[in-house]
Design a protein that fits this description.
9 strands; Thioredoxin domain-containing protein; AhpC/TSA; alpha+beta; two-stranded antiparallel sheet; Thioredoxin-like_sf; Glutaredoxin
């Protein structure tokens, strides 16, 4: 390896370390279990508007934030999550995938889960799922088809943090999975177990005998 190659390799390693550090900072302040999830309205690929509040009216909601079709790891994440989509529906919840728009607009295979376009990553930022990418890594992302969102802060180049959330009917985060290593994926069994437990608690509450002096809501 030449001196130039070694220098480029060291710079790439340094940029990767900076990116990992920035991702960790973002993850440390991202939305966590017990918090109230920000509501939003986003459009799908056909332009149909989907409102989180309306989904919550029908039951728990699973939000799957992924990096987008430009990222092979993001595609693997979405494919893995889509494989459990019917099980999520069978447990009485709805689920949506959220990603920023990019130049790569199609998946290698059709996905059953509705996918919403997070223009300018407004929802991802509201959930704390964004960090500034080091300058040295930006050309590589652009070559893959990633388009950074527009922001008010000059020089900012945001990329999304993958995350999966399970929201209770009142919008409270029942489960949050945020990982700074986008190559890892959330285990579906953990989500399904959490959703089953959540629905079991609601079922128990509905069938719990009324205490003396307790009033029922109508």
């Amino acid at each position: 390896m030449s001196v130039v190659d070694r220098s480029a390799s060291r710079q790439s390693d340094a940029d990767a370390e900076l990116a990992a550090a920035a991702a960790m900072v973002a993850a440390s302040s991202a939305l966590r279990a017990g918090a109230r999830a920000p509501v939003f309205m986003l459009a799908d690929a056909s332009g149909r508007q989907v409102a989180l509040e309306q989904l919550l009216d029908a039951g728990p909601v699973v939000l799957h934030f992924f990096r987008g079709a430009w990222c092979s790891f993001g595609e693997e994440s979405l494919a893995g999550f889509s494989a459990t989509y019917q099980q999520v529906l069978a447990l009485g919840a709805s689920a949506i995938a959220i990603a920023p728009p990019c130049k790569v607009g199609t998946h290698s295979a059709a996905m059953p889960i509705p996918e919403l376009r997070d223009v300018d990553m407004k929802v991802a930022r509201a959930y704390g799922l964004a960090f500034d990418l080091p300058v040295g890594l930006r050309p590589g992302y652009e070559a893959l088809g990633y388009t950074p969102p527009s922001t008010r802060k000059a020089g900012t180049w945001l990329v999304p943090l993958p995350a999966t959330y399970l929201l209770d009917r009142d919008g409270t985060v029942a489960l949050a999975f945020i990982d700074v290593d986008y190559r890892r994926h959330f285990e579906p069994e953990s989500l399904l177990n959490a959703l089953s437990a959540l629905q079991a608690r609601h079922s128990t509450a509905r069938h719990r005998p009324a205490l003396v002096g307790e009033r029922h809501q109508t």
